[in-house]
Design brief:
CATH class of the largest domain: Alpha Beta
Distance between the termini: 45 Å
Number of domains: 2
Strand order of the largest sheet: 2-8-7-6-5-3-4
Largest sheet: 7 strands, mixed
Order of helices and strands: HHEHHEHEHEHEHEHEEHHHEEEHEEEH
Helix content: 40-55%
Structural class: alpha/beta
Number of strands: 14
Radius of gyration: 21 Å
CATH topology of the largest domain: Aspartate Aminotransferase, domain 2
Shape: globular
Strand content: 5-15%
Bound molecules: pyridoxal-5'-phosphate
């Protein structure tokens, strides 16, 4: 074996693989409807693009400080104060190449071999692999749809061992769309504080909430919680900037410094031009977010209503992010051309081959009874895609 034990344990990202496959087939002229991608389909707003063009034209194209330009750290501090009631100094901020990179740095500096990291399931695909890359072990805690996929303090408490180092919380959640209420997060924070467990709070979908639901930053609850928390966020989802690769982390100075040290040897600074664009995104007019959320909301209603009409599917209404997460176990056991559809992988393959619709199997998120469909695509695609799924599922017997 030429690969390290660590590398051989890492699976590729299923979500990225599925959206790449759909994009490639579309490029070849094959009519595939993609519900796999985790990215808004809107263009990046003009003022943000203009800031990037100005950065190029003024020659802002060289290395920057490894941990991010002071101007962007300041904009991040102001954003935390404005939106999250959180006071940070620039030395408590790290700018990375996407929120995914900030998450990696956080897990890498917190965990030693054999440490345990608690992850409530269903979870975002990369958490598990990033924890494995750090040498730590994941402790997956199953949550229930009947409790809106929320981790309870009792379940959290039960998962704790002397080796527990951190918990990863993601609200609003990818893939479930679950958004925790303030008192629910407070109860989880109490458990973390009681045991000195670090909280990695992934808040990348913070602005994408519906039905008047509010997002809460767990670090804002008390100084004790703040001292244990690394908040992760970025500009990818809120400003339709997935390709620009700017994420950030905020937390205790010592942890952020260690993350900056790791980053300084792994990738150095995030793209200089994108950092200037992110300053414009965070500090500029925010109305682009409300417009996007209103459109996602319309699509959410159509997607969920359509899914609930499909035989064997049942879909609760997600309160955040831009994914529908139907329970599809009602079709498991049915057959197509004599071949049984027994799990989420088989269903995903069937929908791809027979309906030309790309979805993500729930197994990728630790939830085999489900599939994930992104509604960050046009209403027309949603309507056509649902019709195709319905027709295909009707052929199962
Ligand atoms: C829950 C969650 N966290 C983090 C990320 C990564 O975001 P970024 O594009 O900023 O790396 C994603 C992207 O899909 C996500 O869904």
């Amino acid at each position: 074996m030429i690969l390290s034990k660590r590398a051989s344990k890492i699976a590729p990202s299923i979500t990225l693989a599925i959206s790449a496959k759909a994009k490639q087939m579309q490029a070849e002229g094959i009519d595939v409807i993609g519900f796999g991608a985790g990215e808004p389909d809107f263009d990046t707003p003009e003022p943000i693009k203009e800031a990037a063009i100005a950065a190029i034209e003024s020659g802002f194209t060289k290395y920057t400080a490894d941990s991010g330009i002071p101007e962007l750290k300041k904009a991040v501090c102001e954003k935390f104060k404005r939106d999250n009631n959180l006071e940070y100094e620039p030395s408590q901020i790290l700018i990375s190449s996407g929120a995914k990179h900030s998450l990696f740095n956080a897990i890498f500096v917190l965990c030693d071999d054999g440490d345990e990291v608690i992850i409530p399931a269903p979870y975002w695909v990369s958490y598990e692999e990033q924890v494995k890359m750090s040498g730590a072990t994941t402790v997956i805690v199953q949550t229930q749809e009947s409790n809106d996929f929320k981790l309870t303090p009792e379940l959290f408490q039960k998962a704790i061992t002397p080796k527990t180092k951190a918990i990863i919380l993601n609200s609003p959640c990818n893939p479930t769309g679950t958004v925790y209420e303030r008192d629910e997060l407070e109860a989880l924070a109490d458990v973390a504080v009681g045991h000195g467990i670090h909280i990695i709070a992934d808040e990348i979908y913070e602005y994408l909430v519906y039905d008047g639901v509010k997002h809460h930053s767990i670090a804002s609850f008390s100084q004790k919680v703040k001292d244990l928390t690394i908040t992760i966020n970025g500009v990818s989802k809120a400003y339709s900037m997935t390709g620009w690769r700017i994420g950030y982390a905020a937390g205790p100075k010592e942890i952020i410094q260690a993350m900056a040290n790791v980053q300084s040897h792994a990738t150095s600074n995030a793209v200089s031009i994108s950092q200037k664009a992110a300053v414009a995104a965070l500090g500029g007019p925010q109305d682009c977010i409300a417009q996007m959320v209103a459109e996602f909301d319309r699509r959410r209603q159509v997607m969920v209503a359509g899914l609930n009409k499909i035989k064997g599917f049942s879909c609760r209404i997600p309160k955040g992010a831009f994914y529908a997460f139907p329970n599809t176990s009602g079709v498991y056991g049915l057959k197509f051309n004599g071949k049984p559809i027994n799990n989420s992988f088989a269903l995903t393959e069937f929908l791809f081959d027979e309906a030309r619709v790309a979805v993500v199997p729930g197994d990728a998120f630790g939830a085999p009874d489900y599939i994930r469909l992104s509604y960050a695509t046009s209403l027309k695609n949603i309507e056509n895609g649902l019709e195709r799924i319905q027709k295909a599922v009707d052929r199962l017997g």
